């Protein structure tokens, strides 16, 4: 509000002073010029009536001469004042219109309305800084789960595009610089319902500033940042940033997992993927043989390092080694789009190729050239822009790495189902055979889409019927929740993955495990299982049917009819 008032007075200062001066001169002149009454006596108008007359005369309306007819001198002064005031009013109105059209003024008004709207929020929300491809994917995922978000982006076109998105929940958006604390505060950083801040801009320094501001102004809030520089990542972690996501290191870790534990890789991709997406076929990258990595930037270095840790000695193809640096092993200078360069790197003997430059056209060219020279290659492609997805699907690469999707999926798990993050951390310590068996179990309950993953707390809000039963001393097991509340002999198509109880984790809990109040369970399966399980959790009659097989009448009339039928049967 202070900015709006300041801008208004700064732009309207001269027009307002001119308008006041014009009214003062016109009023003063009318009081000084003598007039005549009906009897011919001289009189002078007082300041109040003079200002009153000038006020309605300046509007060019005119109510007549008061209190007596004017003399010629008075009429001459009134005409001069009238034309002068009209000119001054045009000048003032012109400046007012210019003020309204001023971008700074419009931004100040927009920010004030936005801040007032955020203060009125009554639902928990996440503050998303940056609405690029990653931010778009994250916001869509959050709203699909009926979670709320607030967006800040420095590009007005992205903010306008957000307003046109068909999202399930309304998402307030501000055109502003997330590096400025005032914009973070306007977006609700200190709001008591703000659950977390996600910095997803493409500038590491801005993400760092967002993390610092968030931790200083709201120390207890969860902060998740994107970073593609190890120095920035270490800086973020030094002052308590909760999660730092590097898309290149994350993908390199996944690729290494696919090399030595394909089952864990499939499990990770299935559970972390978005629901309604088709099931992905398992991939088996060659664990031995000759690999070629085209591009030695941030992505190429991360993949190259992981491949070396797996015992491979890949050859790097880089067009500008003087800028990116050179690897420890063998490398070839070139882009990799030419057959000559790939032949120098040993494409005829290669078993795997990584097209990892920061240009999608070059990556596609590398893949097509390599496939022409060696059709049996295992292809790993880096896709930089979402709009090129159809093209990358056409080249039929076995693995496609899209940085925005990796970050969005990772953060979606952290915000939506944090137990899944813990489950995958525990799964990393298991054998690949354990993961393959779990993948088989998941496949048995699914159709042809990725599983729905959800967390189920056992409390009065989310599981009222079960909480009441446990309070009364009844025994409810995990297997009881897996029964179909319509046909208890049938099992719901879902699998319990993880149980949290008193700070301890139980991986793949058994159906015989009795539940306790405040337990929290991670499930995966079909969406219908989640909906029908909610019926058992919240409805005491459905829970009683699941536990005993007895379907109680739920209404007064039905209970009377049931009681009458029982009496007639006994009689």
TrEMBL record:
SUPFAM superfamilies: NAD(P)-binding Rossmann-fold domains, Voltage-gated potassium channels. The chain crosses the membrane at residues 16-35, 47-64, 76-97. It comes from the Bacteria. InterPro entries: K_chnl_dom (IPR013099), NAD(P)-bd_dom_sf (IPR036291), RCK_N (IPR003148), Trk_Ktr_HKT_K-transport (IPR050721). It is a multi-pass membrane protein. GO terms for biological process: potassium ion transport. This is Potassium transporter TrkA. It comes from Sedimenticola thiotaurini.
């Amino acid at each position: 509000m202070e900015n709006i008032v300041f801008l208004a007075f700064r732009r309207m200062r001269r027009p307002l002073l001119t308008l006041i001066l014009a009214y003062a001169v016109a009023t003063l002149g009318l009081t000084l010029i003598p007039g005549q009454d009906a009897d011919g006596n001289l009189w002078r108008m007082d300041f109040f009536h003079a200002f009153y007359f000038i006020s309605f005369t300046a509007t060019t309306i005119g109510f007549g001469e008061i209190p007596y007819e004017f003399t010629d001198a008075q009429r001459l002064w009134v005409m001069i004042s009238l034309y002068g005031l009209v000119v001054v009013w045009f000048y003032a109105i012109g400046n007012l219109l210019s003020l309204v059209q001023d971008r700074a003024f419009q931004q100040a008004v927009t920010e004030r309305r936005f801040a007032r709207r955020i203060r009125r929020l009554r639902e928990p929300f996440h503050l998303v800084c940056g609405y690029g491809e990653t931010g778009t994917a994250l916001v869509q995922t959050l709203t699909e789960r009926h979670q709320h978000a607030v967006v800040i982006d420095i590009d007005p076109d992205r903010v306008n595009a957000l307003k046109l998105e068909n999202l399930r929940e309304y998402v307030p958006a501000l055109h502003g610089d997330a590096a400025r604390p005032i914009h973070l505060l306007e977006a609700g950083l200190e709001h008591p319902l703000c659950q977390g801040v996600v910095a997803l801009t493409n500038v590491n320094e801005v993400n760092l500033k967002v993390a610092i501001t968030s931790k200083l102004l709201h120390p207890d809030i969860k902060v998740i940042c994107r970073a593609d520089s190890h120095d920035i990542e270490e800086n973020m972690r030094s002052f308590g940033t909760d999660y730092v996501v590097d898309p290149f290191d994350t993908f390199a870790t996944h690729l290494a997992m696919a090399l030595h534990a394909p089952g864990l890789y499939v499990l990770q991709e299935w559970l972390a993927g978005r629901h309604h997406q088709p099931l992905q076929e398992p991939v088996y990258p060659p664990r031995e043989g000759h690999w070629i990595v085209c591009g030695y930037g941030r992505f190429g270095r991360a993949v190259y390092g992981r491949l070396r840790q797996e015992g491979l000695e890949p050859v790097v193809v880089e067009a500008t080694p003087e800028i990116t640096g050179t690897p420890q092993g063998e490398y070839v200078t070139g882009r990799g789009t030419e057959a000559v360069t790939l032949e120098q790197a040993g494409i005829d003997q290669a078993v795997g190729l990584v097209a990892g430059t920061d240009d999608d056209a070059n990556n596609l060219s590398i893949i097509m050239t390599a496939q022409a020279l060696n059709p049996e290659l295992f292809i790993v492609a880096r896709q930089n822009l979402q709009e090129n997805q159809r093209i990358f699907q056409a080249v039929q690469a076995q693995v496609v790495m899209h940085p925005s999707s990796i970050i969005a999926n990772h953060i979606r798990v952290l915000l939506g189902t944090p137990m899944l993050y813990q489950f995958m951390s525990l799964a990393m310590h298991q054998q690949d055979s354990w993961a393959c068996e779990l993948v088989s179990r998941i496949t048995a309950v699914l159709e042809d889409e990725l599983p729905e993953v959800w967390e189920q707390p056992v409390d009065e809000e989310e599981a009222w019927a079960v909480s009441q039963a446990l309070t009364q001393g009844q025994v409810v097991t995990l297997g009881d929740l897996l029964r179909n509340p319509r046909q208890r002999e049938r099992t719901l198509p879902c699998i319990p993955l993880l149980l949290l109880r008193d700070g301890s984790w139980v991986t793949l809990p058994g159906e015989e495990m009795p539940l306790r109040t405040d337990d929290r369970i991670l499930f995966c399966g079909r969406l219908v299982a989640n909906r029908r399980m909610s019926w058992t959790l919240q409805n005491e009659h459905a829970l009683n049917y699941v536990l005993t097989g007895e379907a109680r009448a739920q209404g007064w009339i039905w209970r009377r009819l049931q009681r009458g039928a029982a009496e007639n049967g006994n009689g």
